[in-house]
Amino acid sequence: MGAGRTWRPAVAALAATVVLAGCGADDESGGGGAEAEGVGIVRAGSTAQFANCRDWRGGTKVERYATIEDIRGQLTPQGSETAESDLTDEAAYELFEHSCEAGWADKFRLYKLYARAQAFAPLTSGP
Fold first, then answer.
1. Exposed site from 42, 80, 108, 113, fewest CB < 10 Å?
2. What does the DSSP 8-state code read for residue 103?
3. In angstroms, what CA-CA distances link 42 with 79, 95, 108?
4. CA 74 → CA 34, 67, 84, 115, distances in Å?
């Protein structure tokens, strides 16, 4: 009975090593947005639907930019080959910083703020 259990800790340690080895950031990306997870609740591999201002204020700069990238990707039409937007990431960052500044904005959903700003971006970006 004891001999059958001695291999289990070794298998568990090996499995943990394999899982953790896959969690490192890609050296080419510099730990940028693609590997970073955004702020907020993750559903189906995305934080876009549930991220709110409270989450934004609690996130790091890398997590915040990952959130912007995630939201932009979720709002891109499926027929589009790129996730380009008239709203730059820097403009979205400033939008969220300003909109989420007040405590009463805790429940504002970031994707809704982004979608509205994106709709007006061609009109406000200048010639």
1. 80
2. G
3. 24, 22, 17
4. 14, 10, 11, 10
Closest listed residue to residue 83, CA positions, set 125, 46, 127: 46
The structure tokens 């953790």 sit at: 20
- Please give the backbone phi and psi of residue 93, each rounded to the nearest 5 degrees, phi first: -60, -50
d(CA 50, CA 13): 34
Across 80-99, average pLDDT? 82
Please say if the pLDDT value at position 18 is more than 60: no
Tokens read off for 88: 């730059």
**Residue pair 110/67 in contact by the 8 Å Cβ criterion:** yes
- The Cα–Cα gap between 122 and 127 comes to 9
Sorted by sequence, the CB contacts under 8 Å of residue 55 that are 6+ apart come out as 39, 40, 41, 47, 67, 110
